[in-house]
TrEMBL record, chain A:
It comes from the Bacteria. It is a peripheral membrane protein. Pfam families: ABC_tran. GO terms for molecular function: ABC-type amino acid transporter activity; ATP binding; ATP hydrolysis activity. It is found in: Cell membrane. This is Ectoine/hydroxyectoine ABC transporter ATP-binding protein EhuA. Keywords: Amino-acid transport, ATP-binding, Cell membrane, Membrane, Nucleotide-binding, Transport. Its main location: membrane. SMART domains: AAA. Belongs to the ABC transporter superfamily. One of its GO terms (cellular component) is plasma membrane. Residues 20-265 form the ABC transporter domain. It comes from Compostibacillus humi.
Length: 270, 235
C-alpha cells in the first residue's frame, strides 16, 4: 500500500515539468513573518494537501499564488512564467496588473466563505466570468455552466439567488463557478470550515469528483485529515512558516516521527 | 400689513413659471453631482499618496466653504481671472457651483457604498480574473450603489432646497420671481408664502416617497434573511 503510493508520486515527478514552483518565498505582514522560505514544486494534475495549525502560513501560500497577497521576497513560477515579476527593459520589475492577469488565468480558487456574487442568480454566477473574462458566447457559457451545475448537483437551483441556498449548496456553486474557467490549478482554502458538520460531506464529494476526473492540479488547505489521506498525492505539514514535513499521505499522516506533527494530529484524533 | 388674497392670486401666476426653472436646475445639479461624485470617488482610490492627499483636501475645502460663496466665485470672480476666465450664464454657473459642491457629498456616499462591499467579493473578482473595468461594472458597483439609493434620494431633496441660492446670481426660479413681484408691488408676504408652500408641497411628498423606498429595500433584505433561516431550519 505504502509502496504503491510512493511509486505514484515518483512517476509523476519523472514525467512532467512542474506547473508551479515556489523559490525561497517569504511573506511578512508588518513585523510578523508568516512564511520563512517556502520551496515547493507542484506537478500538473498533482493533488496536494496543506495541513498545519492555524497561523502556520498554509492559507498564505495559496493566497500568494492567487495574487491576493504579494510575497515579500522570492519567486513563484507558474507555467514557466514568473508570477510577481515581469521583464521590462531587460530587468525584472514588479509585475503590473496586466502581467498578473495574463498569468492568473491558469489559477482558480474556492474560498472558505464562498464569496458568491449575491446580486446574481446561481447561473449568472457561473456565466459572468466566462462571458466577460474568457469572451465566450452567452449560449456557450450558459450551456457549460448548466453542465457544471448539474455535475455538482444543483441543476434545479439555476435561477435562485445565493441567499436562498444552504452553505453546502453555496460552496458547490462556488466550485462550479471556478471550474467553468477551466483552470490548470485549483486552490481550495479551507472550503468546509464554514459549513455545518452535516453539510461537509456533499462538498467533499464534489472535490473528490473533481480530483478523480480532472487533469487539474489541486492544492487543498484543509483540516479534514481523512479526506486529505484519500484524495492527496502528497501532504505538506506547515509549521511556523516553514514546510516541516512532506511526503505521501501515509508518510506524513501515519508514519512521521516529527513531534510537532504528532501533537498536531493528536488534536484531530481527539 | 394685512394678508391679501387678491395679492396672493395675482402673484401666483407670476411666480409659477419659475417652478420649471427651479425644478430643472435641481435635476441638472443633481445629475452633475451624481456623475461628478464618481470622479471624486475614483480619484481618491488612486494609490499614490500625493494625489490622495490633494484630492482629500480639495474635497474638504469645497465642503467647508459655503455654496453661496462658491456660486459667487464662479459667476463673478472666475471671468476676471486672466487666461482661464470664462463668463458663464447664471444657469450654467449654478449647475457648476451647486453641482460641484454637492458632488463632494455624493462622492462620500459612493465611498461608503463601495466600502460596504465585502472583501471576499473583491477577492472572488480577482480569482476569476476580471479586468478592472468589468470588476467595477459587474461585481462592485451593482452591490455598492443600491444600498445608497435612499441616501442619494435625500440629497435630491436637500439640493432642491438649496437651489434658491441661484436666485442671487439671477437664475429666474420661484424665489427670484417672488422677490421681483415683491419689489414691484411692495408686497412680500404673499409671494414668499407661495414660495414656501411650493417647496413644502414638493419636498414633503418626496421625503415620504424616499422613506418608503428605504423601508422597502430594508424589507427585501429582511425577507432574504428570513428565507435563509428557513432553509437552514429545513436542511
Amino acid at each position: 500500500m505504502e509502496e504503491v503510493a510512493v511509486k505514484k508520486t515518483s512517476e509523476i515527478e519523472e514525467k512532467e515539468d512542474p506547473i508551479v514552483v515556489y523559490k525561497d518565498v517569504h511573506k511578512s505582514f508588518g513585523d510578523i513573518e508568516v512564511l520563512k522560505g517556502i520551496n515547493l514544486e507542484i506537478k500538473p494534475a498533482e493533488k496536494l494537501a496543506l495541513i498545519g495549525p492555524s497561523g502556520s502560513g498554509k492559507t498564505t501560500i495559496i493566497r500568494l499564488l492567487m495574487t491576493l497577497e504579494e510575497p515579500t521576497s522570492g519567486d513563484i513560477i507558474v507555467n514557466g512564467k514568473n508570477l510577481w515579476k515581469m521583464e521590462k527593459n531587460g530587468k525584472l520589475v514588479r509585475a503590473n496588473e496586466h502581467h498578473l492577469r495574463n498569468v492568473r488565468g491558469e489559477i482558480g480558487m474556492v474560498f472558505q466563505h464562498f464569496n458568491l456574487f449575491p446580486h446574481m442568480t446561481i447561473l449568472e454566477n457561473c456565466t459572468v466570468a466566462p462571458i466577460h473574462v474568457k469572451k465566450e458566447s452567452k449560449e456557450k457559457a450558459r450551456e457549460r455552466a448548466i453542465e457544471m451545475l448539474e455535475r455538482v448537483g444543483l441543476k434545479d437551483k439555476l435561477h435562485n439567488y445565493p441567499s436562498q441556498l444552504s452553505g453546502g449548496q453555496k460552496q458547490r456553486v462556488a466550485m462550479a463557478r471556478a471550474l467553468v474557467m477551466q483552470p490548470k490549478i485549483m486552490l481550495f482554502d479551507e472550503v468546509t470550515s464554514a459549513l455545518d458538520p452535516e453539510l461537509v460531506g456533499e462538498v467533499l464529494e464534489v472535490i473528490r469528483d473533481i480530483a478523480n476526473t480532472g487533469k487539474t492540479a489541486m492544492v487543498l488547505v484543509t483540516h479534514e485529515m481523512d479526506f486529505a489521506k484519500d484524495v492527496a498525492d502528497r501532504v505538506l505539514f506547515l509549521d511556523k512558516g516553514v514546510i516541516a514535513e512532506e511526503g505521501t499521505p501515509e508518510e506524513v499522516l501515519q508514519n512521521s516521527k516529527n513531534e510537532r506533527l504528532q501533537s498536531f494530529l493528536r488534536r484531530f484524533r481527539g | 400689513m394685512k394678508w391679501n388674497w387678491e395679492t396672493f392670486f395675482d402673484a401666483l401666476p407670476f411666480i409659477l413659471p419659475g417652478l420649471g426653472v427651479t425644478v430643472g436646475l435641481t435635476f441638472a445639479c443633481y445629475l452633475f453631482a451624481l456623475v461628478f461624485g464618481f470622479f471624486w470617488t475614483f480619484l481618491r482610490r488612486i494609490p499614490i499618496r500625493t494625489i490622495n492627499w490633494t484630492v482629500t483636501w480639495v474635497m474638504e475645502f469645497i465642503r467647508s466653504t459655503p455654496p453661496l460663496v462658491q456660486l459667487f466665485f464662479i459667476y463673478y470672480a472666475w471671468p476676471m481671472i486672466p487666461g482661464i476666465g470664462v463668463t458663464l450664464s447664471p444657469f450654467t454657473s449654478a449647475i457648476l457651483g451647486l453641482g460641484i459642491h454637492f458632488s463632494t457629498y455624493i462622492g462620500e456616499i459612493y465611498r461608503s457604498g463601495i466600502e460596504s462591499v465585502e472583501k471576499g467579493q473583491w477577492e472572488a473578482a480577482k480569482a476569476l480574473n476580471f479586468s478592472t473595468v468589468d470588476k467595477w461594472r459587474k461585481i462592485i458597483l451593482p452591490q455598492a450603489i443600491p444600498p445608497t439609493i435612499p441616501m442619494l434620494g435625500n440629497y435630491l431633496i436637500i439640493m432642491f432646497k438649496e437651489v434658491p441660492l441661484a436666485s442671487t446670481i439671477g437664475v429666474a426660479g420661484i424665489l427670484l420671481m417672488a422677490n421681483t413681484y415683491g419689489a414691484r408691488n411692495w408686497a412680500y408676504l404673499e409671494p414668499l408664502t407661495i414660495v414656501g408652500i411650493i417647496f413644502l408641497l414638493l419636498s414633503y411628498p418626496s421625503a415620504i416617497l424616499i422613506n418608503k423606498l428605504e423601508k422597502r429595500m430594508n424589507r427585501r433584505f429582511d425577507k432574504e434573511m428570513a428565507f435563509v433561516k428557513e432553509e437552514v431550519k429545513n436542511a
